[in-house]
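Sequence only, no structure available. Ideas?
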Amino acid sequence: MLQILLQVRVRATVVYRRVFSSAAIGLAGCTASFVFHGLVADPWALSQGGGPLILFAVASAVLFSLLNIALIAIAAHTANPDSAWREVLWDRESVLLDVVELCLGVTVSISCGLNLGLLILALPPVVLLQRSLLHAQLQAAARTDAKTGLLNAAAWQREADTEIVRARRTGDTLALLIIDIDHFKRVNDAHGHLVGDQVLVGVASMLRSQLRDYDVVGRFGGEEFVVLLPGADIDEARQVAERLRVRIGHMAIPVDDTLVRVTISAGVALMSVHGDDLIDLLTAADLALYRAKELGRDRVCIPAVPPPPRSLPNDPSTP
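Reply:
I predicted one. C-alpha cells follow.
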C-alpha cells in the first residue's frame, strides 16, 4: 500500500521499480521477522522493556535495513554494471538517515507494545522526519539535473566558485574540463530523444565512476558537461580527460538490436595559467574544446598559452 501511495500521490515512476522495491521490502521484512521470532519466544514480553529483548529487536531492525539496501544495490548495479558500488550503496547522509529511521521504528514499536496510548507521543517525531526528508528532497531537486543526476549549471557554478576561492587561499592547483558529446544531434535524429537521454545518463554515470569524490562534476546544458579537478596540474588534468575520452568511447548503449556508441571532445584549462577566475577558466576551456572540434573531434585539447613578452634591450645611450 505504501508503494501504491508513493506512485499515485508522491512521484510516479516506472512500475517495475515500485514492484521490485515492494518485493525487496517484503523479503527483508520476512527474514528479519523470522530471525526475531526465532530469538524471542514471546514477542509480547518486549513490552516489559527487558534489555536482551530490545537488543534482539534492534538487531532485527538492522538486519532488515541491510538486506533491503543490499537487494536494491544489487538490482541497481545489475541494471548499470559500469556504475561503482559506492554509488548504489549509501553515503554519509544515507547512513545517518537509516540510523534515524531504525531508532525511530524501534522506539515506536516498543512504545506501542507498552501502551497504545503512547503512539500519540510517537507521531510528532515521525511527521517531523517526513518533513525533513521532503525538505532535503526539494533541496536536492533544486541542485540536481533531472536527467543525469549531476549538479545542474547553477549549483555547479556555486561549488566551483567555492573551490576556486579555496585554491587561491591555499595556493593549490586546480583544473577545469569542458566535455562535449560529439555529433549528439545525430543520435537524437537517428534513434530518438529517449535514446539520447540514455546516452546522457550513461556518460554521466561514467563521469561519476571515473572521478574522485571531491571532484565537482555537472551538466552545463544539452550534451555538455563540466568538471572541476581540485589539486590537479595540467598533466593530471589531461590524463583524466584522456581516460574519460577512452572509457566513454568504449561505452555502448543497447538500443533494440543495435548498440549506440559516442565519442567526446574535451577542453582543459588550468588556474593561474589560463585564467584566475571561473569565467576565465570556462572561456579558455571552451576555446580549447572548439579547437578539438575543429581538429576532428574525439580528442583533448589545451588552450595555447601566449609566450611572455620579451623585455627590450637596454638603450646603450641611456646611462
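Residues 163 and 230 are 7 Å apart (CA to CA).
Hope that gets you unstuck.
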